[in-house]
Amino acid sequence: MVAALHWLALPAAVACWSCQSRPALDFGAGLDVPYVQTSPSVVHAMLELAHVRPGETVIDLGCGDGRIVIAAAKDFHAHGIGYDLDPLRISEARANAAAAGVSSQTEFIQQDLFQAPIWKADVVSVFLLPPVMDRLLPRLRSELSPGTRIVSHSFLFHAWPPDKAIHPEGRTLYLWTMPAGGK
What we know:
Elements: H1 2-15, H2 40-49, E1 57-61, H3 67-76, E2 79-84, H4 87-100, E3 106-110, E4 123-126, H5 130-143, E5 149-153, E6 164-166, E7 173-177
Parallel strand pairs: 1-2, 1-4, 2-3, 4-5
Antiparallel strand pairs: 5-7, 6-7
Helix pairs in contact: 1-2, 2-3
């Protein structure tokens, strides 16, 4: 069983092989959320939990070095868009996508996640602190289409219980699906 799990995590590990970030807890100037890396196997679990399908659009709000967007493109054949305020992270994400061979399937944009266009997402990925999650929730409810999935690493919305939670590597991942008529 353990050997099988290692093989399942292999595609995400390969996709992020080129991610050059060094582990750190780095808020950066003017940022609401620190940059914290997600392990390749947890990235893969997030995308599986969200049931990402080929051709879908995955938007990562606070994309860091781009590993979720890159894995969505490389392993799930999705189109990925990452938004981050930190210009260093955006530059790094673009370089990582080029090294992974998925530049044509990915976009990385330096923009505030509260201003980023999210309406075309099939999946929204977040690893944001609870106050930021709660500030973001009204936008998600008003702008996302029914059936859009939201996957979060570690943190919940206070006013919206998740549809599902899983616990890979001792982490907690949450999934919500936008209902018809908003939530």
